[in-house]
């Protein structure tokens, strides 16, 4: 329901803002709390003015080839992490066009342009393991004297995000400029408290690194069991198939008949312990829900964008009312399910449904694979691996948006790996996901501690952290 707020003329900052959203009463509690604290304008803490990057001209292929420097865009910048799974790269020449925004360890970057306000204010600290990277024009680069871990946590906290939304302008897109970012009020707490939050941020990052490494061990163990860890298909520029083969498959697209798929399947068939169809170890669940039938009920809706491709977790879900659910929000998810994209261009989007998302609703753009007689962690590793992914790519059909028909799942074969080795793979996946959960919990604890310090006191915040 629409609401009307009246602002006195002499309260308007006519030199800068007359947009109604800027004067919304939703921001009043934040202002009152911040006024009670000792704060500093971000601009007074900077080594250099806040800046953005740019996008080198896509018309010049030399700016993008060879691929040397990671190019961070809005979709790559998540809450205190950079998603590098499918990141774009620019060349040394392309990077030279935007050299002043090349990232350094302990830089802090934040989204300043997005379709919705939920995108604005996502902040991440840069660590040395990212390697060389740069940013585009939708991201602001902050180099401050404030410890980067603390600043990142504050920016991602409720009071950091609220200030950035207040400073933003909601036109065709929600956007901030660099000078507006510099107007952010940062609370000044004791050195001990700031250092404590900074160290929590260090611990979080170490856990994220461990999580990725452990998952890699699970993946390598699976591939090594089949001797596929270094497998590369035979390069074939041309190949010939008979009419009878095309007729049997009811396909005439060349990609379907590429020899690499036959090579992979033959490798699996030769596995000493035999092979199975993926439908022998998991069912493709058709359990659905109808959120629109319960208009006022709350639902958690999982889309492709919510998947962490690196280790196969659901990172977040949209909180929606049943009446607002899109027509594709229908697949009922259960803890232990493995969801995987049905779209050929997103086959890396695979995740295990944790207890946290039991009962959530998934997009119809997922297969929901429910384990029959194997562990969920093992099924995840299998579906995420090239063993299944390449076969799904082969089975995809369509032109503009190629997808895998559900009936094609029975054509996908997998090795019949002995239970002891399946257990080891599943254990590594669970250990990886546990580290990820702990990292996520540390960020939430650090954010809430900063919020408690703002709302109550440092002492209360420290009690919360140590409690």
From the helix content, strand content and strand pairing, which structural class follows? Answer: alpha+beta
Cα end-to-end separation: 41 Å
Broad shape: globular
Looking at CATH, the homologous superfamily of the largest domain is DNA methylase specificity domains
Rg of Cα set: 25 Å
Structural descriptors:
single chain; alpha+beta; Adenine-n6-DNA-methyltransferase TaqI, Chain A, domain 2; 3 domains; four-stranded antiparallel beta sheet
List the helices and strands and how they pair.
Layout: H1 28-36, E1 39-41, E2 51-52, E3 69-72, E4 77-78, E5 81-82, E6 88-90, H2 92-96, E7 108-111, E8 113-114, E9 123-125, E10 133-135, E11 139-142, H3 148-156, H4 158-167, E12 169-170, E13 174-175, H5 178-181, E14 185-187, H6 191-226, H7 243-249, H8 259-269, E15 275-277, H9 278-281, E16 282-284, E17 298-302, E18 307-308, E19 313-314, E20 318-321, E21 329-332, E22 338-341, E23 350-352, E24 361-363, E25 366-371, H10 376-384, H11 386-395, E26 413-415, H12 419-455, H13 458-466
Parallel strand pairs: 3-10, 17-24
Antiparallel strand pairs: 1-14, 2-11, 3-6, 4-5, 7-9, 7-11, 8-13, 12-13, 15-26, 16-25, 17-20, 18-19, 21-24, 22-23, 22-25
Helix pairs in contact: 3-6, 6-12, 8-11, 10-12, 12-13
Describe the structure.
The chain has three domains: 34-188, Adenine-n6-DNA-methyltransferase TaqI, Chain A, domain 2 (Alpha-Beta Complex), CATH 3.90.220; 196-209 and 427-466, no CATH class; 214-424, DNA methylase specificity domains (Adenine-n6-DNA-methyltransferase TaqI, Chain A, domain 2, Alpha-Beta Complex), CATH 3.90.220.20. It is built from 13 helices and 26 strands. The protein has helices at 28-36, 92-96, 148-156, 158-167, 178-181, 191-226, 243-249, 259-269, 278-281, 376-384, 386-395, 419-455, 458-466, and strands spanning 39-41, 51-52, 69-72, 77-78, 81-82, 88-90, 108-111, 113-114, 123-125, 133-135, 139-142, 169-170, 174-175, 185-187, 275-277, 282-284, 298-302, 307-308, 313-314, 318-321, 329-332, 338-341, 350-352, 361-363, 366-371, 413-415. It has a four-stranded antiparallel β-sheet with strand order 2-11-7-9, covered by helices on one side. Strands 16-25-22-23 form a four-stranded antiparallel β-sheet. A four-stranded mixed β-sheet has the order 20-17-24-21, with no helix packed on it. Helix 6 (191-226) runs antiparallel to helix 12 and helix 8 packs across helix 11. It is globular. The protein starts with 27 loop residues before the first helix and ends with a helix.
